[in-house]
Amino acid sequence: MKRVRWVYVLALVLIPNGIAGVAAAPTAQAPAGVSGAVGNPENGQRLFVKDTCYFCHGYAGQGSRDGARIAATAMSAQAFIRYLRRPFGAMPAFTAKVVTDQDAMDIHAYLKSLPAALPAKDIPLLNQLRDK
């Protein structure tokens, strides 16, 4: 039961409500053309909500019916910005006028700071449901 409480607390920390921010997180590398820029995960969390990324990708980047899981993304910052500018599928394009390169760096840093999803076998509630 301790793990369930920990997951609940983690979810509360990740919900961008202004009460709790992301703890010290690694910064993203600068993409080509953005010299010396690093991402700010706290600003990235704010932009993730402001730009409604959560609408398709969930508040913790967990994904949904309409958007891919993007938490703890393995995508480089440069690839992330390239994808924002020219996505495929249903995702709309975000030009530099809508999301600047620095804003994209911040969002990428926020996504990198999110924990990876636990395997299903490590989620006690799922195990309880499976065993019934």
Summarize the structure.
Helices cover 43% and strands 0% of the residues. By secondary structure, it is mainly alpha-helical. The chain has a single domain, classed as Cytochrome Bc1 Complex, Chain D, domain 2.
How are the secondary structure elements laid out?
Elements: H1 2-14, H2 41-50, H3 54-57, H4 77-85, H5 101-113, H6 124-131
Overview of this protein structure:
There is one protein chain. This protein starts with a helix and ends with a helix. The chain has six helices and no strands. α2 (41-50) crosses α5 (101-113) and α4 (77-85) crosses α5 (101-113). The protein is elongated. The protein has a single domain (2-131), classed as Cytochrome Bc1 Complex, Chain D, domain 2 (Orthogonal Bundle), CATH 1.10.760.10. It is mainly alpha-helical and 132 residues long.
